[in-house]
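Table S7 (text form). Paired inputs.
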Amino acid sequence: MPSQVNILIVEDSPTQTKLLRLILEENGYIVDAASNGIDALEIVRRKKPDIIITDIVMPEMDGFALCRELKSDPDLSLIPIMLLTSLSDPQDVIKGLQSGPITSLQNPTKILF
């Protein structure tokens, strides 16, 4: 069981957030959530999570912009970021990697439902 690992989920779908939160909390992680990049930045600046799992397509500030903003801030640039998305177009994958996350994963909830 992880020792006080704090994960921030950034996802505009309440259903996806609830599912990810459930899975992570059942495995002992501490979870915070934001519904867009702007709210996520506020949380990150206050709490500095150990890792951020973010969707790409969101209102107000998408996941690409969130990654660029985090990676450009010296105080936040070392926080690992994982993009979790249903986008699969090669151009989206390239854009995602250029924005600075550590990895990009296909959204696994498509398999579950």
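Next pair, protein 2 of 2.
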Amino acid sequence: MDCATWVPSGLSSEAAAIATALGRCIVDAPELLEKLVALLKIQDQQRRSEMSNTPKAIVLEATRALSRDGRENAYAKEIAAEANRLLKVRGERAQLSPEKVGHQLKGSVCALARYHKLAMA
């Protein structure tokens, strides 16, 4: 296997970049490359799982759930209630207040506005 053309599969772009960088150091050992990808897959899945439980991810999921109901608007209190329902279903004890939801939404909207401004430049 030519290490210059080796492309790891089944990983996020971040983990694939790490695998590619480390894989360049491995020559004539395809089984070692496979083990490298297997180890990185485990770490990548753990990272994704941890990220899906962040307040920002929970608020996004709750907002999407409310928008699927055909709603165009929702108050932070309603989003917090949906986020807390999702947390409870997952067995989490944490609760998000409407204020915390508002901060998460404000940060997301500000980031989106900055991205849009950069894209338009």
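The chain has a mean pLDDT of 83.
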